[in-house]
Amino acid sequence: MNKGLVLGVYEPETKDGAIDVTSSPSAAHFNSLSEGQLAKVLQVAGRDLKAGSSRTLFSVIPGYDTTAICCLGKKGAKFNEAEQIEEGWDNIRAAVAGGVRALRSVGEVELEVDPCLMAEAAAEGGYLALFEYDELKDPEKRKKPVNLTCLTSHVGSSEVGSVDRIKALWARGKAKAEGQNFARHLMEMPSNKLTPRLFAEKVQEKFSGRQNVKVVVRDKKWIEGEKMNSFLAVAQGSNEPPYFLEVVYKHPHCKMDKPLALVGKGITFDSGGISIKPSANMDLMRADMGGGACILGSILAADNMELNTYLHAFIPMTDNMPSGHAIKPGDVVTARSGKTIQIDNTDAEGRLILADALNYAETVNPLLILDMATLTGAIDVALGAAVTGVYATNTDTFNILQKAGTRTGDRVWRMPLLKHYTKQVTDSKLADLNNIGKAGRSGGSCTAAAFLKEFVTHSDWMHLDIAGVMENKDDVPYLNKGMAGRPTRTIIEFIEMVSKSEGSH
């Protein structure tokens, strides 16, 4: 079996200089092993090699059939204040992803990957780049599985670190990437393959046998008993019965008394209901359960990383469909909290199911509440795919999340949670609240967040509107086109940071 190597190098120090193979311990090691042949080849093949790009070389490095030389950008890249990102780490993700893709395209399935002085980022880039949802295609047309291992044969200098340390960081990166890839997998699944019932079954299967994770599936009768009439109003238009999913993770040594409550939107398909969406690109609404998917990916990673923390997830799951049973514009329902809601747009359904889920999440007396939802097209208009929009009631908690995003490269941006927007949704002719507010499309993401806030009494709450980062086109170089699973890795990092600050370690 052929064997490939993904090897990191740096851009030239000067405009006319040569590719820097000496600053990378791995590249320097193999350059020496090849008696300087690597540097000589790169004098020609490495011209115009920029950050994130790669070159495929054949039979240059002894012991490897192919080598992808991937460019890590400028040596010494660190935190970029203007971009709010650890630039060096993100360069590694992009470079390794490019190298892994290049070698996969020439048929290599056994790859050793240079840890590039930050094995966690290297693993993230490699495993994220390998994700493909092709399980429904002809087996002959599916991508061949690729086995990645972390290169440690060059270890010997204090700059690189011990083999055990490198392997531990690699394992962290792999776990984070696999969590995000699980979210991507769920988001890509066709809605007929992931109805609310099938979604619940898939989650039960995924976490089966994991001692630290408990999955509880609530049926329609339970939902009715909890008087989640806002959730049920959305579900009544579908032939598929709704479910409410609870997933609890607690490390056996965790001393936290209160869990971090994670609430995720679980609309398994969103047609818009009576306020039906345009048919163009409606197929993408199979991923309208992206909030729930990212939360599940975070819990998977937390368990694989054995994070010393306590998590409690809440995911209401249903389709939003038009039918003779569907809610109609102008209908009024009473939410679990007792507040009444005038539903003027049935396509603003995510906030309706989250209203009851958020209210119910407070019953476990959480340390904080974080919800994620592909909630509004307005956030995509405002921020695009660069960052996730965040609405927070606690600045200190937001700052932790923001710091987590600089580390993972999956950044967040704070949005206004002002009384101005609250007035928009509490000015309702027929009820306590209106689900779209009197301003219509103006500030749509902000009014949606203000609506949700009316169902939260906890002082520490964050709402993440992830609609803008739902899909990857060419925005993130280490993700393929398709559903992005963002910002799963940022949530994992946030969970770990908060848990440590709570003294659970």
TrEMBL record:
An example Gene Ontology CC term for this record? cytoplasm
What this protein catalyses is: L-cysteinylglycine + H2O = L-cysteine + glycine; S-benzyl-L-cysteinylglycine + H2O = S-benzyl-L-cysteine + glycine; Release of an N-terminal amino acid, Xaa-|-Yaa-, in which Xaa is preferably Leu, but may be other amino acids including Pro although not Arg or Lys, and Yaa may be Pro. Amino acid amides and methyl esters are also readily hydrolyzed, but rates on arylamides are exceedingly low; an S-substituted L-cysteinylglycine + H2O = an S-substituted L-cysteine + glycine
Q: Domain Cytosol aminopeptidase, which positions?
A: 345-352
Gene3D superfamilies per UniProt = Leucine Aminopeptidase, subunit E, domain 1, Zn peptidases
For this chain, one GO molecular function annotation is: metalloaminopeptidase activity
An example Gene Ontology biological process: proteolysis
Q: What's in the keyword line of the UniProt record? A: Aminopeptidase, Hydrolase, Protease
Functional note: Cytosolic metallopeptidase that catalyzes the removal of unsubstituted N-terminal hydrophobic amino acids from various peptides. The presence of Zn(2+) ions is essential for the peptidase activity, and the association with other cofactors can modulate the substrate spectificity of the enzyme. For instance, in the presence of Mn(2+), it displays a specific Cys-Gly hydrolyzing activity of Cys-Gly-S-conjugates. Involved in the metabolism of glutathione and in the degradation of glutathione S-conjugates, which may play a role in the control of the cell redox status.
Its family? Answer: Belongs to the peptidase M17 family.
Q: State the name under which the record lists this protein.
A: Cytosol aminopeptidase
Q: Which organism is it from?
A: Dreissena polymorpha
